[in-house]
Amino acid sequence: xxEGAIQVVRDSINRLRSGDFDIHxxxxxxxxxxxxxxxxxxxPHVEAARKLVKEGIELQPGSVIGYVIKRGAGSISKRATPxxxxxxxxxxxxxxxxxxxxxxxxxxxxxxxxxxxRF
Length: 119
Hints:
The protein is of the alpha+beta class. The protein has four helices and three strands; from the N terminus they run αβαβαβα. The chain has helices spanning about 1-20, 45-55, 75-80, 95-110, and strands at about 30, 65-70, 80.
């Protein structure tokens, strides 16, 4: 049911915009594969892990980092914030809609034959 799928996406986007969501629905989880000091490039989970360390939380390879993207300026990596240190009011809703939800849904809908959908 293509129309039903489109409506589910629209409803999800509307829930985000209205603030009717739990922050844990947006958390990305990634595991540290090596000590933080060995990461040469800063990715979102590494930046979030560094913020946890600044708060006194010990991490090691194998630690799983849950983070969200906060509103503000700067790269996605710099705006990645451990879920423990964020509130849903901090979350960059536009980022999630435009960079997570719509692209993923469009890949699926294109496979079903749709070329463009306005959400």
